[in-house]
Amino acid sequence: MDNQQKKQAQVKKEPFFRLVKRDTLPVGKVILIYAIAIVGSLLLSSIICSAFSDKNPLQFFSSLFGGAFGSSRRIWLLLQDTALLLGVAIALVPAFKMKFWNLGGNGQILVSCLAAVACMYYLGGKIPDFLVIILMTVTSILAGAIWGVLPAIFKALFNTNESLFTLMLNYIASGLVAMFISIWVKSGSGVLYPLPNGHFPNLFGSKYLLTIIVFFALAVLMFVYLKYTKQGYEISVVGDSPNTAKYIGIDVKKVIIRTMIISGALCGVVGLFVAGSIEHTVSTASANNMGFTAIMATWLAAFNPLIMMGTCGFIAFVDKGMMEVRSAFGFTNDSIANIVIGLVYFCVIACSFFITYEVKFRKPEARSTKTEGGKPL
Amino acid sequence: MDKKTVVELCHITKRFGKVVANCDVSMDVKQGEILSVLGENGCGKTTLMNMLAGIYYPDEGKIIINGEEATIRSPKDAFSYKIGMIHQHFKLIDVFTAAENIVLGTGEDEKYDIKAAKTRISEMSEKYGFHIDLDKKIHEMSVSEKQTVEIIKVLYRGADILILDEPTAVLTPQEIRRLFGVLRAMRADGKSVLIITHKLNEVMEISDRVAVLRKGAHIATVNTAETSEKELADMMVGQKVSLNIDRPLPENPALRLDVDGLTMTGPEGNLVLDNVSFEAYSGEILGIAGIAGSGQRELLESIAGLHHLDSGSVTYYNPKKDKPITFFHKSFERVMELAEEGMLRYADGRDFDGKDEDGKPLHRKTIKAVVEAGEIFFKEDEVINLREKTPLQIKELGVRFSFVPEDRLGMGLVGNMDIIDNMMLRSYRRGHSLFVDRKKPEELANDIIESLKVVTPGTHTAVRKLSGGNVQKVLVGREIAAGPKVLMAAYPVRGLDINSSYLIYNLLTEQKKNGVAVIFVGEDLDVLLSLCDRIMVVSGGKVTGILDARTAEKDEIGLLMTKTDSVKE
Amino acid sequence: MITFLVSAISIATVLLFGCVGEIITEKAGHLNLGIPGIMCMGTAGGCLGTSLYMGIANGNPSWLLLVLFSLVFSVIFAAATGAIYALLTVSLRCNQNITGLAITIFGAGATDFLMSFVDRTHFDAAGKLISSPLPFAKNLGWFGEIFLGHGVFVYIAIAVALACTFVLNKTRVGLHLRAVGESPATADAAGINVTAYKYVAILVGSGIAGLGGFYYIMDYIKGSWENASIIEAFGWLAIALVIFVLWKPHLGILGALLFGGCYIVAFVLANVTSTQKEIIKMLPYVITIVVLIVTSIFDDKENQPPASLGLPYFREDR
């Protein structure tokens, strides 16, 4: 009798629910979970925004969509933003597939932007524009690659923590930009006005089209690179199973360094376009935090460059749409956009839990299964 | 034998899926005794003890402790019954001191006072004869010191029944002697000690009684004084069961692989391979028998170029005499190397040294042309030194090794990739194209699925979703498809059902018939005895014997497997 | 020189709060890149508390109540933001890097948003009151100015850092917390409630970090407000500082002083060009990278990040 009671007490000690790792969910279900999260977070945002103003949630959505798609100029800008973000996302994806946490996108963009602007500043007007553009392209890609490969070399040789390393490089890049501006701008205002030379040409009369075409094309190339080339295959093996990589004779160090050169160089292309096609100048904010935002985009797209076109588009859409919401709702600064983006991120991040794990509630009569989780000898 | 019984296991059965780990085991433990739990790998001895320690919960049967039925569902429960287990893999925190590790998680309701705790630990150490610096960090310690910390940790929590899982496996003879001293002191103090082991000489030396397990069942518990090593070995391995495996005699065996004096230090600082020498011949299966962890894994991995060796050599004999050299397995550079070494000749017998008659180097294109035309031949068998070569270099030297590693999903295959992508792990580099060719791997995948009857939804299924047997078929299939001259397989049938196992045996035999030198690491002695031509027995990183599998006796192998340097005080 | 030291100590205080907060979180095995956002939220909370109290006090504020009000509000807001991070990374086992970045984006935005609603009319007075030096500082000349001339939050920061070192190294709670960060599986097996320790560490760490942002706004710049970006920048610097001081809070006091000095020297020195100023401002990050590389080269076990930093713990994964 006493033992019986003891046993029952033991069973009661079992937790009410427990987590089990799932097999992969079907794609449809995954999309459904994400869709619910996104719609839910936007609804929540609309309620919050309405609560702090005299507008209603419906107006929130109309402003949101209006801000993103309201005019042809807005659509062009949306596409341009998407393209740039996509550029950063495809730069990060090979590194992430290799389980190399490149948090240094911002820094890689900044140094390359700086390199391009340096070409514009020193050579602009002195040599033909097309030469300036060629030099800008070379230097900025090189600068991005160097900024990317530095942490990779130390990771490969000494296993130095790459996420902290790349994070620090962001601030050094930002410091370099501030330093060069202080050299170039004698007035001490700290603002470098747009430079007249080294602008990228318009394509079919549109100043947006070149950027858009380049990065969407690069995304397709990255998809092909990762999926169909030998190097892409090596990246997957190194990321998924370093032991297997060793077993089949892949030089893991070489792959890490090579991949980060590519990753940094692609961030360099983004910096190049920011300097050559959009801003024609550089500031510490030139990266527009895309190095971080793009992490979200790659991760949401499950590291697939084609899906990233959609996730980058969505992030750009929320960003642009919220700018309109902000002015329509009479908010004084763009902080509300960040709150909404933050909320969407939280909901979507939380989704990953429901996709990886399954919550199993304790069945009333069930015996402990916890103790049976082990493997046979 | 009038000592008090402290633990009684009654009709314990434990299953993992279809596999029965323990079947109707009943045994007892007395106060103040050292009881050895003896058995081969996979006989269920660790599982049985894990049920006492709260890691597993028995499916059937009951555990009685001090006369009362006990429910042990977690290590914490086990401690409440004063049972503590020292596992093979220590659970210690590297950057903590010994004392910090020992007190971790104890004494929630009293003031934290590491000094007082240290005094208590020191008193305990003195009583049982431990030698330990309590302020030393774990990462600065030897294996033996870490083990001591684990034992003290258990004692500090007040355990009266200690279970040690293979405690001597990683210790030197001196350390073993010291450990035995401690265990005797604990016995004298009235504690009960259970040692999981397979080393007969140690069993004879330290224990009062021996419980022998075989294939999940309890065979007998005997008093050590009334038995012998021979009797124990017989009980442990049982009667020879002959299996119905086709075993043709090797045809024209030729030396293929010569391993000489391999010595390697493991990460723990002990010798995992100690002067290992053997030869492997074409057309035969060389079996490697031994208790798991005796160096089999390291041996195969170091032949495959995955480890740094202290000393020794691995030489590969490539049967190329009078055969044309091709670029299929050799790089241009390797061809030039061989030419310079004077290994090559033209069809008419003239030396080919990569130079024309005037001694001027031939044009690269000319050399390529004559090699591709099949006009250049080997003069002798190629002898290749593989020491300190990486797997890629070995491959580039044209050595056709296939290796089925023990860790299938962690090393042999990539779990997240589909079958096709796993097929090309070894071959994806072929050709100069930037792109991978998935056509041939797909054909190969389909071939393997069909010929080996792999159960899978399709070629695009991630291999980690396949069952163990099917994963193994994919891996073995790929390695055999590479057309090896040497095939190494570590535990290729572990976890497989009978049908899959036989399929693998037949595949290995077929390779042997094709003139491949097969090296097979196995754990089931019956299989080794009926499949292999020769059996090499390893124990503690040393070769303890090489036998003819057709004439060897099972208990003979059993003794060699457990042969260690004798531990005498 | 004295003004330089005083300013350096002030910036050091901001960094020290952030650094100690992050150390506590990292000791539990969580790399919290949300600290910049959490420091912002601490600022917003503290300012809200100040504003509320100044409203209640009606022109006659008491120093003690003001400090208490703002401190409690600051800690609660920061800890609440930390709770989101904890929920996502501990219970839902989401990727720590990504969650942290999202927290930072959210925290900075929410702070800007909240601050636009905070009534800042009495901030000037509140700032002066909070930063009022210890009573006897004036009579002690330069010594008093450097060591005693600060607002109470400077001393709180130092006390917290020292207390944190003590707790981590000399108490059972600290031992258990370090065990959780090093090897949650071992801690779990020893009967330590891993989830609870992680939650408490993240909440406490966040609360402490939040004070840094509040101190900067209310004490150092006496209640003026532009936007959250400066505090976010301090947050990243604080994360760098954690590496620089090798996860040791008491070293954080010295490290913060060095970083604060590098930051402030650019503003104080008269005869350096703005270019040189920018170079000096970069120094802390360069030093941090050097420290990171050196520790990884020597692979010295004593000075490594907690072994399970950044990894989710799922018991059944064993």
Q: Strand order of the main beta sheet of chain A, please? A: 1-2
Q: Most extensive interface, residues per chain?
A: A-C, 53 and 54 residues
The top level CATH class name of the largest domain in chain A: Mainly Alpha
What's the SSE pattern of chain A? Answer: HEHHHHHHHHHHHHHE
CATH superfamily of the largest domain in chain B: P-loop containing nucleotide triphosphate hydrolases
Main pleated sheet of chain A: 2 strands, antiparallel
Q: Could you tell me how far the N terminus lies from the C terminus of chain B, measured between alpha carbons in angstroms?
A: 26 Å
CATH architecture of the largest domain in chain B: 3-Layer(aba) Sandwich
- Stated plainly, the CATH topology of the largest domain in chain A is called ABC transporter involved in vitamin B12 uptake, BtuC
Total DSSP helices of chain B: 19
Helix content of chain B: 25-40%
What kind of assembly state do the chains in view correspond to? heterotrimer
Radius of gyration of chain A, whole Å: 25 Å
Which class do the helix and strand fractions of chain A yield?
mainly alpha
Discrete helix count of chain A: 14
User: What structural category arises from helix and sheet content of chain B?
Assistant: alpha/beta
Number of strands of chain A: 2
> Which sheet architecture does the biggest sheet of chain B show?
6 strands, mixed
